[in-house]
Amino acid sequence: xxxxxxxxxxxxxxxxxxxxxxxxxxxxxxxxxxxxxxxxxxxxxxxxxxxxxxxxxxxxxxxxxxxxxxxxxxxxxxxxxxxxxxxxxxxxxxxxxxxxxxxxxxxxxxxxxxxxxxxxxxxxxxxxxxxxxxxxxxxxxxxxxxxxxxxxxxxxxxxxxxxxxxxx
Length: 168
Known about the structure:
- With about 170 residues, the protein is an alpha+beta fold.
- The protein folds into two domains: about 35 residues, no CATH class; about 130 residues, Nucleoside Triphosphate Pyrophosphohydrolase, CATH 3.90.79.10.
- It contains two helices and nine strands, in the order E-E-E-E-E-E-H-E-E-E-H.
- The strands form two sheets. Strands 3, 4, 5, 6, 7, 8 and 9 form a seven-stranded mixed beta sheet that branches.
- Strand 3 and strand 4 form a beta hairpin.
């Protein structure tokens, strides 16, 4: 859900439209605050172990009941790699070592934009177990992963698969 600013968070003044870079944006008439429409940042992880990929069935919206990669919103205090590792641990009880960036994906969602940073990582500890956010999870052979709900997750998986083909 995107927050619509009506008042300046710095000084409390009512925001008014201001033309900036060819578009009208809410801005403070008294100070320099501008409500730029920044995207949210999310992370996803292709968690793998011996050619298998860990996939969750989502327990929350969006996509409740559908298959997805472990992932979620990035916290401001963490790096994207730390966020991908944290999300995987929270959702699956599996600890991974993040190897690298699989893809960067931008999409428009209700309320604004979403930037997804998808990583790959291999299992280093833990045992896959259901959580509230992922009441079902399974390891699938890389070529047998079910259809994933999010296009960013599908792209990340395909990029990871292609990178494996190059390494063989």
